[in-house]
Amino acid sequence: YLRFKVRSRSKSPISFALTAIARLAISPASSTITAGSTQAYTATGYDALDNNLGDVTSSTFFTISPDGSCAGASCTAKAAGPHTVTGSDGASATASLTVTAGPLASLSLSPGSSSITAGASQPYTATGLDSYGNNLGDATASTVFSIVPDGPCPGASCTATVPGPHTVTGTKRWATGPASLAVNRAPPPPPPTTPPAPPHRD
Question: What is the dihedral of CA 37, 96, 75, 42, to 10 degrees?
């Protein structure tokens, strides 16, 4: 307890006590949001005897880790995974926040850059990403591959016969992802082998 004395106009001292916060509780204690959205919190203070001191949200400072930010009592994060929100107001308390990936926004092709000999083929895999780069898993089977300026892509492998730079594009619904493919000229065939001359006979 913090005790103060205030002298009134009658010059008689008036004593009153301000109860310090010994424990803080954050609500919700556990929640889940989609990457980029926000979660609002409230904070309740308790004294040393665990008496409820009421709502202290406005005086509580909120932070979030390992990434993200808090504006007032609302916190947000872009990276998918477990996060911890901490409230501090004399005492401190934590809440768990799970951030899940958002809807498909783009594709990442692997390899992102490669080279082949003209006529050979390059296999690809595609990974789905949300708008913040969170991994949505393998999307190869449902991705349509194409190559320019020439060549076909049967399944997830692309080939071309014209030497030069090429661009491979993976497409799944509205999401796309590029990869660069250098097509090198095939080496010339080896010269024909001359059979050895037969041994000379007298």
Answer: 120
Euclidean distance between CA atoms 32 and 148, whole angstroms: 42
pTM, 2 dp: 0.77
Task: Give pLDDT tens digits for 154-179.
Answer: 999 999 999 999 999 999 999 999 99
Q: How distant is the alpha carbon of residue 160 from its chain centre?
A: 34
Q: Is the peptide bond before 196 cis (omega within 30 degrees of 0)?
A: no
- Contact of 156 with 123, CB cutoff 8 Å: yes
Please tell me the distance from the alpha carbon of residue 77 to that of residue 39, in angstroms, as a whole number: 10
* Position with higher pLDDT, 3 vs 194: 194
